[in-house]
């Protein structure tokens, strides 16, 4: 069984491949080329499911397990922005940098130097006859001045609970241990093992 990722986000692909170490995990774009998937769900879980199902159906194979990740950052003091709109916060097709700048600007508008925030990841798994969705969260705060250039997306402005540095500054190994994505994937891993061991 091949594991195919229903994402071409380089940051996610790198983190997910690092967690699967010995396994061969490839982004769908290596097989199918570039493809826009419309994420019109109202929750992280729905969007994760849409992505995994779309790629599973496009591949049309019974020897693959497709994994998707839908994730984002939520700031309760900003009416839960950007949430599921994290990737398009500064508009459709916005870059990570533009989205980060928009969140910095929104904090400044509200006069907030920092504010509690959390990341959510929904991981969906699609395989022949099987579908699952699981979640992971990472709590902390966002600050109004980005620091460091590690990680991706909103990481330079996010400080995880129990730390003083942003995810842009911290060693990637710390993020691997703490992250929303790692927690959801820890739940996904035994399911993937089980699906791989099934004789169909
Ligand atoms: P998606 O690809 O539609 O799931 O959008 C994910 C959005 O959330 C992107 O804007 C990412 O930059 C952001 N995001 C998700 N996970 C992380 C993370 O671990 N660090 C930083 N930003 C993240």
Bound molecules: inosinic acid
**Helix-strand pattern:** EHEHHEEHEEEHH
Count of alpha/pi helices: 6
Summarize the biggest pleated sheet. Answer: 7 strands, mixed
The beta-strand count equals: 7
Judging from the principal axes of the Cα atoms, what is the shape?
A: globular
Whole-number count of domains: 1
Q: Which second-level CATH architecture applies? A: Alpha-Beta Complex
CATH topology: Maf protein
The parts where pLDDT drops under 50 for at least 5 residues are none
Give me some keywords for this one.
200 residues; alpha/beta; Maf protein; seven-stranded mixed β-sheet; 35% helix; binds inosinic acid
At a glance:
By secondary structure, this protein is α/β, with parallel strands linked by helices. It has one domain: Maf protein (Alpha-Beta Complex). It contains six helices and seven strands, in the order E-H-E-H-H-E-E-H-E-E-E-H-H.
Word description of this protein:
With 200 residues, this protein is an alpha/beta fold. The protein is built from 6 helices and 7 strands, in the order E-H-E-H-H-E-E-H-E-E-E-H-H. It has helices at 10-20, 29-32, 44-59, 96-109, 172-178, 180-197; strands at 2-5, 25-27, 64-75, 81-82, 114-127, 130-143, 158-160. Strands 1, 2, 3, 4, 5, 6 and 7 form a 7-stranded mixed β-sheet that branches. The model has no long low-confidence stretch (mean pLDDT 94). Inosinic acid binds at residues 9, 39, 70-72, 86-87, 96, 99, 119, 151-155, 179, 181.
């Amino acid at each position: 069984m091949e594991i195919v990722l229903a994402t071409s986000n380089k940051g996610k692909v790198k983190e997910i491949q690092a967690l699967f170490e010995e396994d061969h995990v490839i982004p769908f774009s290596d097989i199918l080329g570039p493809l826009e998937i419309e994420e019109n769900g109202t929750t992280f879980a729905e969007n994760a499911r849409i992505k995994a199902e779309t790629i599973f159906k496009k591949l049309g194979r019974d020897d693959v397990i497709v994994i998707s990740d839908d994730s984002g950052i939520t700031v309760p003091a900003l009416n839960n922005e950007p949430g599921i709109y994290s990737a398009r916060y500064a508009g459709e097709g916005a870059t990570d940098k533009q989205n980060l700048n928009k969140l910095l600007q929104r904090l400044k508008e509200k006069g907030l130097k920092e504010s509690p925030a959390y990341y959510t990841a929904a991981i969906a798994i699609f395989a022949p006859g099987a579908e699952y969705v699981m979640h992971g969260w990472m709590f902390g705060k966002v600050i109004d001045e980005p620091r460091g250039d590690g990680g991706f997306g909103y990481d330079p402005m996010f400080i995880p609970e129990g730390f003083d540095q942003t995810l842009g500054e911290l060693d990637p190994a710390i993020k691997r241990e703490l992250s929303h994505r790692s927690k959801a994937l820890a739940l996904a891993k035994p399911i993937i093992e089980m699906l791989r061991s099934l004789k169909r």
